[in-house]
Amino acid sequence: MTQATVGREQGYALGHATDELDRLVEQGRFFGDLTAQVLRQAGIARGMRVLDIGCGAGDVSFLAASLVGPEGTVIGVDRSPEAIDFATRRATVAGLANVRFIAGDVAELALDEPVDALIGRLILMYFPDPAVTLRRLLGLLKPDGIAAFHEFDLAGTKSLPTCPLFEQTMGHIRQALTRAGADIQTGLKLGWIFREAGLPEPQMILGARVERGAASVVYEQVMQITRTLLPVIVRTGIATAEEIGIATLADRLREEAVALDATLVSPCFIGGWVRKAS
Q: What's the pLDDT tens digit per position in 184-195?
């Protein structure tokens, strides 16, 4: 493809190679407590049957499994067979008998019985019309069931004092995701998406990681997603590989932040949840 803008119909912009699945695991650890807070506040509780849309490497499914307990069930669905195989292996190693994973397109998903909760993290941002997709998925949710999603506001990153390399790198990430078809401010749009899907007005909360110092893992996190997006960055003319300098990017981000004694705010996550009308 040579277009400067890659259409959203291309799907998940980051792929499902082994390196990307490993990156998702690290990202899950980095942001996991923020998502767990949303799931708890949404009302995910013991004994529930939960459907995790776009489960990827399985981290959100595992969070939900810890909340529903052994008497509950979590079903993760992703259209990538590689992601499903990876998540299934992780569940087996962890001995999680209450989690299972399905490879398939959510637009065609059918279940033998409805679920108590429909959840997802960083998934609605990749659909051309997330409200249409969510409206269809609500058919899998019981009356009075919970819909809870956790999405980015990538415009929310910041540094103080300003770290030019950090700000530039986050700009590259925002541009690349946008050109790959993702909506980088889906979190701010959750209220509209829920309403257009036929749901009541959701409760919403914002959270972010705030990082400082040489020991922070934020520098590796930023480097890893930049590395994954590098083909898009180069192909669409955002920057050259030489300008990015991926091999030393994490070290340079760390050196800059430490030298400036800076505080870095990660991409903001906005969680929204609501109960489907009875």
A: 999 999 999 999
Rounded Cα distance, 117 and 110, in Å:
15
Tokens standing for 174? Answer: 């925002």
CA distance linking residue 44 with residue 116, whole number of Å: 9
Is there a domain that residue 98 lies in?
Answer: yes
Structure tokens at 178: 């946008």
Mean pLDDT of the chain: 91
Residue type, 78: D
Identify which of 179, 168, 193, 177 has the alpha carbon closest to the alpha carbon of residue 256: 168
Prediction pTM value: 0.89
Residue 102 resides in a domain: yes
Q: Which two tokens stand for residue 138?
A: 């609500």
Angstrom distance (rounded) from CA 217 to CA 66: 25
CA–CA gap between residue 9 and residue 222 (Å, rounded): 26
Residue 199: which of 277, 253, 263, 252 has the closest Cα?
Answer: 277
Question: CATH number of the domain that 178 lies in?
Answer: 3.40.50.150
User: What is the pLDDT averaged over residues 54-83?
Assistant: 94
**95 SS3 class:** coil
How many percent of the chain have pLDDT more than 90? 83
* Distance, CA of 181 to CA of 130 (rounded, Å): 13
- Which residues span the domain enclosing 213? 8-275
Domain count, the chain: 1
Instruction: Give the residue from 58, 62, 60 showing the smallest Cα distance to 83.
Output: 58
The whole-angstrom separation of Cα 71 and Cα 9 is 38
* 76 found inside a domain: yes
Rounded to whole angstroms, how far apart are CA atoms 51 and 66? 14
| Residue 1 lies inside a defined structural domain of this protein | no
Q: Which tokens go with 46?
A: 């013991």
Residues 6+ apart with CB under 8 A from 170: 154, 157, 222, 267
Q: What gap in Å lies between CA 198 and CA 211, rounded to an integer?
A: 38
